[in-house]
Amino acid sequence: MTDRPRNPTIIDVAGRAGVSKSVVSRVVSGRGSVGEETRQRVLRAAQELGYVVNASARAMVAHRTYTVGAFVRDAATPFYGHLLTAMQERAAFHGYRVVTATGSGRFEEDDEYRALETLAMLRVEALIVCSGLLPSERILPFAERLPTVVAGRPETHPSITSVYCDEDEGGVALADHLVGLGHREVAVVTVPTSHSVTLGPRTAAMARRLRERGAHVLEIPGSHRETAGAWATEVLRHPGITAVMAPSDRHALALLEQLRLRGAAVPEQLSVTGYDGIGDLTTSLIGLTHWRQPIDLIGGGAVDALVQLLDGEQPPDHHRALPGALVVGRTTAPPAA
Amino acid sequence: MTDRPRNPTIIDVAGRAGVSKSVVSRVVSGRGSVGEETRQRVLRAAQELGYVVNASARAMVAHRTYTVGAFVRDAATPFYGHLLTAMQERAAFHGYRVVTATGSGRFEEDDEYRALETLAMLRVEALIVCSGLLPSERILPFAERLPTVVAGRPETHPSITSVYCDEDEGGVALADHLVGLGHREVAVVTVPTSHSVTLGPRTAAMARRLRERGAHVLEIPGSHRETAGAWATEVLRHPGITAVMAPSDRHALALLEQLRLRGAAVPEQLSVTGYDGIGDLTTSLIGLTHWRQPIDLIGGGAVDALVQLLDGEQPPDHHRALPGALVVGRTTAPPAA
DNA sequence: TTGTATGCGTTATCAG
DNA sequence: CTGATAACGCATACAA
């Protein structure tokens, strides 16, 4: 039952092809030169035996694994799902594998440590950190030992490379959009930067920009989507408010749902904005006005930067900000006169 | 720059702790016995050196990797994202890693082969196949060499274990729901089973059940979501039709969007059903009536079955069907009188 | 071009 | 309880 037949080795192949194992090694690894006739014989023998290179053995002597580790804090969210897909694809292009590690969820404390230890055991050659929650200080210890790039969020520390979409720009663009429509009293669901280094800055930018443009701002603390009902209640208690800005698309959707339950019409009575640009339905069916992040480019760019780092080159941009875009949907309109 | 400092080995640790490498091995692997005092000394030395076990070296001699491979055909879709998360979590619980492989997208042909070869190089101990597209025959060659379980779809072949949510049951439940509401003329967007072993059977079940209950069925071929516009047009051309059943939530959302563009009111004029139960907004904001699959249980169950297989036990259920649930939302209602 | 020998970091077997 | 020593599968200088 469990007596799995041992996998064939280059020695087995060598025996079958009537050559030494060195020759087989050269054939399968593509290095060194072998006679064309011999090569064919080896290839055939390997084929017949179902030989597949053993990555572990290769890694031992090569001191390379061609593997990068992706550390994801909150894996189930669509944003990170897309990011992972983009990274995996780009890594394959460069000849690297991606193994992803994430906290198993239970043990908050040493969870993170265990995840990174797993990656270390695998001898990943570099690290991609995907998390809006993990503070910079927690990343530094790893960045010291491994080339590290942070994807999807700005990172100011000089020893860490990052690829992201500028949060400030998005927040400002959305605020300008609302002010341009004529909104003068706007609620912003804010998240402290200490809680998320992505949601924090973008909501701060929204509020700041609104004030710069002369609008009155009501800040509603909203770290958790589960409390969307409270935001809705709070907003509706201020009849003067004509628009609400959410920290992310998911926050916005939760808010839309709660407003709907309370009978508030969007965008007639209240305009709503999101942030991220995840999922087709956000755009098409819901028509949520939001700031769209170029996730594919972020994931791909992060891998590109990593590969350059591994090749000993310094990436052109240590901190690369990619352009996002304002997507105007059907959840924003001029305020009711 | 690229001169990465060589990772410390058990020999380094042994030297620092003043013992032989055998002792260190016993301490870090937890096998064999060592004096408590010595153990502490070794642990401290390892700590100071930042020693981490080398998984490759360990795998070489242990002939085990504690890694299972997940082969995912279409990774970016929410359904598989959730599934992966669930599997990863459950695998960690059992002490296994999950490395996922997926076609890089470009080369349709040998793409699949390369992905599985990568998994083989890594010497994954088992395979989880997640794909509604991959036909059984393509899976068999791998299942012969590796314990294999198919997640998220039924699989009748005796040498392959599967964990899924019965497609027939869901299709029937949704059809019954519509008939119960009074619908007598219903359109079903169908997908051939040759194209998808999940979407095919469930849409077939819908159509079959509708007919059993005496309803008139219009079957609309709809393999690709991009053609949702055509489905909408087709449906609206038949004024007698009062409901449309889609093969999945995503298909349903695309359809809803197209119906909206054409001014058709849901559910007043037309009822719409989905399938899967992915994403919070499907349920809350859109209120899509659908059949909900227990994705977490499917992912977890697949891993559990795999671990049992690896332990030499025969899983209790060779083909395990998990219960789904009908979720009635706001996109279905009695037909307009 | 081909074969031989050596080492990579661990675990396991066997003496001490 | 501890210490040598032999694999594990592969790549690579080096010799033929």
TrEMBL record, chains A, B:
Residues 8-62 form the HTH lacI-type domain. The keyword Translocase does not apply. Keywords: DNA-binding, Transcription, Transcription regulation. InterPro entries: HTH_LacI (IPR000843), LacI/GalR-like_sensor (IPR046335), Lambda_DNA-bd_dom_sf (IPR010982), Peripla_BP_I (IPR028082). GO terms for molecular function: DNA binding. Pfam families: LacI, Peripla_BP_3. SUPFAM superfamilies: lambda repressor-like DNA-binding domains (SSF47413), Periplasmic binding protein-like I (SSF53822). The keyword Metal-binding does not apply. CDD domains: HTH_LacI, PBP1_LacI_sugar_binding-like. Gene3D superfamilies: 3.40.50.2300, lambda repressor-like DNA-binding domains. PANTHER family: ALANINE RACEMASE, LACI-RELATED TRANSCRIPTIONAL REPRESSOR. This is LacI family DNA-binding transcriptional regulator. It comes from Streptomyces yatensis.
